[in-house]
Amino acid sequence: MEMQQIVDHVRAFDGVLVLAPEPGGPFPEIAWGDAFFYYAPDGAVPERTQPYGTIVTKDYPDDRASALDAPDRFRVNIHVGRERAAQLPLGEDPAASDALAPHPQYGDAGWVSAVNPGSRTAALVLALLREAHDAARTRTERRGGGGR
Q: Of the candidates 104, 126, 105, 106, which has an alpha carbon nearest to the alpha carbon of residue 117?
């Protein structure tokens, strides 16, 4: 599955905001080429909320475990919560392609990841992104609202 297919799938969710930083925009260069998914029905980045999912296309200085600097690699990261993560078939290697694993840095906080989702993980990754979106919507509505 290509990164753009995942982004397009998420863009179809109600109330979603997809940030996809590009060169020349207001976001730092390290984020260029990545994608960040928020529940934000008002279209504004929530001030005190982390994205519920991301796609990263390169190693970050403090996150090199998935070997993303190799050509044609990207990693989908999804906040599923600790309870849901414990129910998933997670592998141990954060660099394995087409395998679900605890996020190399935030696994203890209920984040999972998949490098280059393919035939084994693509459907599950898309379903987990939907679950994460719905959970973010529920949290926003509980707080009273409009995404801020």
A: 126
